[in-house]
Amino acid sequence: MRGGFDRRSIHVRLARLTLSGFKSFADRTEFSFDEPIIGVVGPNGCGKSNVVDAVKWVLGERSAKSLRGSAMQDVIFAGSAARKPMGMAEVTLTFENPRLEQPRSDGPEDPELAAEVTAELSPTAARNEDLMDDEEMILAGGDGAVVDRSGVRHRRLPIDTDEVSVTRRLYADGRSEYLINDRKCRLRDIKELFLDTGVGTNAYSIIEQGKVDAMLLANPMERRSILEEAAGVAKFRQRKLESARKLDAAERNLVQVREKLANTERRLRIVRGQAEKALKFRSLDDRRRHLRTAIARDQFHEFDERLNGLTRQLASLESNRRDLASVLATLEEQKQTAEIERHQAQERRHDLEQLRLSENNRLDQAQQRIELTTRHRDDATSAIADEGRRIGELEVQVAELGRELAEVESRIDESAQEAATAEQNLAEETRRRHQFETARAEAIATVDSSRDAVSAADRDRIRLESAVRASDERGVELQARLGRLAEKSRPFAADLDVHRIQRLKARVRVDVLVDEIDSLDRTLRMEEDRIVRLDDRRADLTRRIAGNRDERTGTESRRHLLHEMATAGEGIGDAVRDVLGLGSEIPGIIGTLAEHIDVDRSDAEAIEAGLGPHLQAVLVESSAVADAIRLRLPDLDGRVELLPISRFTKAENDLSGISCSIKETEAFVFAVDLVRADPRLGGVLQHLLGATLVVNTFDESRRLALRGVPCRLVSRDGHVLGLHGEVILRAAAGREEGHGLLGRKAELTELEGLGARLELVRADLETESSSLDAEHETRGVRRHALGEGLRKARSEEVEQRYAIDRTSQMIDRIARERGELEGEQREIVEQLIAVHAERRRLDGERAMAIEHEASLTAALRIAQAELEQIGSKVEAAAERVAEHRTDLGQINARLESTRRERTRMSSAVEESNRQLDRGRIQIGERQGRIAEYVEIISAAEIEVEASEASLASMTDRFAENGAQLTAANDSVERSAVALEATRVEASRLDRDAHALEMARREIEIKRESLEESMFEELGFDLSGLLEAQPELPEGAEGEPFVRDVAIEESESLRVEIKRLGNVNLDAIEELDDLEVRNEDLARQLGDIDSARVLLGDLIERLDAASRIRFEETFNRVRENFAGSQGMFRRLFGGGSADLYLIPGEDGTVDWLESGIEIRAKPPGKEPRVISQLSGGEKTMTAVGLLMAIFQSKPSPFCILDEVDAALDEANVERFCNVVRQFLDQSHFIIITHHKRTMQACDRLFGITMPERGVSRRVTVKFDEVGRDGRLAGDAVRRSETEDQATEPVISGADSVMEIETEAVDPATLLGGRKAPEAPLPETSGSRLAEAWDD
Fold first, then answer.
1. Looking at residue 13, what DSSP letter applies?
2. What is the 3 state secondary structure string of 887-904?
3. Beta 1136-1141 vs 727-728: how paired, if at all?
């Protein structure tokens, strides 16, 4: 073999590439790579680059743009004129994977690091899967982890097989899958498989068209990524990122768990106290319930005894009350007559009292006015005196301020005079300094002009002649400009009118929009208010719907429970079930009695008590059926009652044993009348319930039994009194005999009706809700429309205002431009005049130039002497000016301070004068009010005298009326005394009767309240308990029961329970749950904290490993590329190059983050940047760098796609020689059009396109390839013949032909002519960021 190629020296080798339905390779095509250098040739557009795309695609390329497509489905064969599109694209790479002599190490100096990385990060794979694109994500139902780097170390690829095949499939419906050795896997597994091998979509093993330039023109960080792949740092960077993500997640989880743990501990402390309180509450409540029951029993007995005594007392009092009623009527008439006479006298007395009261009121009001007015007069006099004293003080203060103000004014005048003097001195010195400076400037100008004039005399003559010619040209140009400006200024007037009209229209539109916006805003606010009210109604309706839903849920739950109990036959004995199970075998078994009768729920307990165990009786058609059951089940385990319905006949209820008085006074009903059933069961029911009466209470049962009613009596609360006096308490309470069957059945019927009613209510509520929702939606649409209208109006308003501003600016701009044009025209006219004047001046100056030069030399010496003298004078004047400015500043400061003091004192004088004026005005007002007060007092004194005289005249009239009223009162009193005595007696009787009735009613209410409170509080019927256990309770240890002691103990228990406050009975169970959860969270916290520490340590170790590896690889690549024996010098035959890291902002190099820069200087050139190199030089530089990387870290294979396109023959020769040097480490697949490169290949594959759009691999020889890459027709036909002969069944079968080539002089290939320089390839404009895009 050529080049020393030995497969055993390459640990991993690409053996085959198989394509099917990929891009233009419609048929199954296979490329075998069993030679060191494989060439792929063919004309442009035949599909050579599709081979590179296939390799990239199967390695996980996810960018359709990198595959020269717009979507990933573009890689599927799209069809041709003679072929249909295919539904799937498939590419397979097959690698040889021999065993290694030494186990593979995945880490740097620390071999355990990689294993720790893998073990630590393996859980993250599942979370990272969701980051993959859907079209690249493999089905989750794969075979699990395929790649095991830690378990397989004796092979380069971590799969324990001699061959590893990697397959990718893409279906037309978008489904995609990856396979390794025909096992489904993930894209992550593919990347893990080739990690640190140099193989990948963005690795250096594939160098495509355009990537050569892209590598050189890429940014430093993109170049760094290539070296990281070569250094094996990429896997550490990837795993560092995964570790960082896990660390962030651990930090977040740590915070969350700590917060949960803190919440749980807080809740645990709260619940622990609540649980202790709940346990204590249970103990106290049980004891209190026992005491309350005993107290209630004792109170109930006491109430019964008191009620009997009160009933007897009420009957005696009723007869006494009737006797007193007639006496009371007579006395009432007598008293009424006397009261009429007294009433008349009282009315006359009332009139007199009203008259006297009126006069007294007048008198009091007059006296009050006198007193109040006198106080006001005294207050005004006192205020006048105080104000006078204050005015005197203010006058003294004003005089003092006046004197001080005069002194301040005098000081201001003095300071002003000093300032004026200082300013005069400063102005004088400043004037002198300016004179000196002006003289100095003139002297300097004279000296400078003299110097320039002497040397420029000859230049002035030439300049003046040129200036004359330029002046003439300038005049012509100015005339032309003046004409152009006149033409340009004509349209300005019309434009101004148009813009002013537009601005006026916009302003009118803005006014209209403002009104429209106000209207829309008001309407929108009203609509929003309506929506708020609708929201309130909807919220209320939602609460009602929720309440209805809860009630329906509770009802349905209860109904479902009852239905399940009925279906399960709960309450029916096993023996009865056995009999019912014979229904399919023995005809005539009807079912249990409970199943075939119905009662109201209120009657269910009484009927259940009356039927007792008969509820489980099995109804049969006849005695024969009963015999058949007996014979079929001879050994029944339990009691079964059989009722043959044919043996019983229905009869009328027998009332003969019940007297008429009992029928009239007692309330009872026959039990059989309360039952609804099939008429056929009438006889059975009559037999079981015919002699059973239903009454309301057990007391009524006892009373009827004592009155001789010959029937069994059942109370509605479930007690039974038999014919012979036997008592069955709570006969329907148990379920062991089937009791409760009718109650459940009745409750089930009632619940079904309630459910239907609730469903109707739900429908009504949902209808109302739908109506409100529709109205809300309508309102919302209207609000949205109003809001949209308002937004549009405001937007239009803004646009119109903007249009106004824009139009105004346009008007201003036009006016400004027109003014500028007019100004420019005036300037041009002035310039024309100046040009003519300048022409005349230049003629005169040209004659005077020579004479002027002689005079300037003498003037220069004089000017220099004067300049020195004037300079010293200017410096002395400047010093004097500075002194005067300092003095003036001090004087001005004193003057400003004095003026501020004058302003303050002037303000004080003005304020004092205002207070004086205000005081004098107030004194005048108060003196006027004093005169008014004197007049008011005089008028009030006259009114007092008149009122006193009127009151004196009323004394006699009062005396006469008093005598009449006394006589009437005596008469009334006598009648009243007699009537009152009678009423008192009657009232006493009424009170006694009422008291007795109230006492009886109170006792009854207390007894009822006691029963209700016991039922509500303790959940039992007190009267039923007393009937069942009539004996009184005993105290502790058999002592007599003492109610007061029990009440006191119960009250103390109540107080103690109340002192406990709110009790959470669920806290006991919650405490157990919280303790378990707290322990759980504590364990989680420890685990997460340990993981966080481990991840932080792992990241630090990954950074250290990455730094060491990258530094070693960078130094090797740098030496291989830029060293004295480096690839650059070998390819160029000299020159220099360098590879260096770019320092950061602080000037230091970071081995983990710094980018990489390239410096290249071919022999004889000094380019400043890489872009200044020629196309061939860029290619050679990039190839040199890639080969240097390859030399440092070889890849199993390298694909070079037309990288030699820009190279001439000499450089191609060097390129081929360099490739040969790597054949002991890798093998190469080169796509080329260059004949010299083809000659260097050990085997050539030709790609042709026999039909449009379909590529095919053919066998070619070196001399069958044309200069443009076209293949000879003989080669194509021979390949077709060989394919048909080899595999006639499979269309397009592959045949590989080995070509032995020998060295040929390039000159002979070209007919003795020198090889021309190859044309530059068409660039795609993409850089490395696109060419190496992931």
1. E
2. HHHHHHHHHHHHHHHHHH
3. unpaired
Bridge-based pairing of strands 1197-1201 and 1227-1231 is parallel
How far is 779 from 530, CA to CA, in rounded Å? 8
Reduced to 3 states, what is the DSSP secondary structure of residue 1038? helix
Question: Cα separation of 22 and 169, whole Å?
Answer: 10
- pLDDT, position 570: 63
Residue 727's DSSP bridge partners are: 721
Instruction: Tokens for 1, please give them.
Output: 């073999």
pLDDT digits (tens, 9 = 90+) for 618-655: 888 888 888 888 888 877 777 888 888 888 877 777 66
Q: Which of 1195, 1199, 1285 is nearest to 31 (CA)?
A: 1199
Exposure string over 556-595, b if 16+ CB within 10 A, otherwise e = eeebeebeebbeebebbbebbebbbebeeebebbbebbbb
Mean pLDDT on 312-338: 77
Give the pLDDT of residue 22.
92
Query: Which single residue is written with the structure tokens 């140009």?
Result: 477
Amino acid making up residue 975: S
The number of beta carbons lying within 10 Å of the beta carbon of residue 410 is 11
| pLDDT at res. 608 | 80
- Please tell me the predicted confidence (pLDDT) of residue 507: 86
CA trace torsion 322, 328, 329, 333 (10° rounding): 180
Which of 204, 10, 231, 164 minimizes the C-alpha distance to 1115?
A: 231
Tell me if 1130 sits within 8 A of 1162, measured CB to CB.
Answer: no
Neighbours of 819 (CB within 10 A): 11
Residue 630 CA to residue 698 CA, distance in Å, equals: 39
Instruction: Give the model's pLDDT for residue 1044.
Output: 76
The owner of tokens 């557009």 is 45
State the amino acid at position 1150 in one-letter form. D
Burial class for 64, CB neighbours closer than 10 Å (0-12, 13-18, 19+): middle
- Rounded Cα distance between 485 and 1320, Å, is 54
- Residues 1135, 1167 contacting (CB under 8 angstroms): no
pLDDT in tens, 499-511: 888 888 888 888 8
149-154 CB contacts, 8 Å cutoff, 24+ apart: 149/106, 149/114, 149/118, 149/192, 149/195, 150/106, 150/114, 150/115, 150/118, 150/119, 153/103, 153/104, 153/105, 153/106, 154/99, 154/100, 154/103, 154/104
State the chain's mean pLDDT as an integer: 76
**Distance (Å, rounded) from C-alpha 387 to C-alpha 287?**
86
Rounded to the nearest angstrom, the gap between the alpha carbon of residue 1001 and the centroid of all alpha carbons in its chain is 66
Written as one letter, the residue type at 1098 is L
Q: Residue 1299 pLDDT > 60, yes or no?
A: no
SS3 state at 714: strand
Cβ burial 663-697 (10 Å sphere, 16+ → b, else e): eeebebebbbebbeeeeebbbbbbbbbbbbbbbeb
202: pLDDT confidence band, cut at 50, 70 and 90? low
In the prediction, which pLDDT does 1167 show? 66
pLDDT tens digits, 940-972: 778 787 777 777 777 777 777 777 778 878 877
Residue of 72, 71, 88 whose CA lies nearest to 26: 88
Confidence of residue 1029 (pLDDT cuts 50, 70, 90): low
CA distance 544 to 536: 12
For 544, residues 6+ apart whose C-beta sits below 8 A from its C-beta are 765
Going 1194 to 1196 to 1201 to 1204, the CA torsion angle's sign is positive
Task: Say if strands 88-96 and 163-171 run parallel, antiparallel, or are unpaired.
Answer: antiparallel
One DSSP character per residue, 1226-1247 reads: -EEEEE---HHHHHH-SEEEEE
Task: Dump pLDDT digits (tens) for 1276-1292.
Answer: 666 666 655 554 443 33
Collapsed DSSP state (helix, strand, coil) of residue 1136 = strand
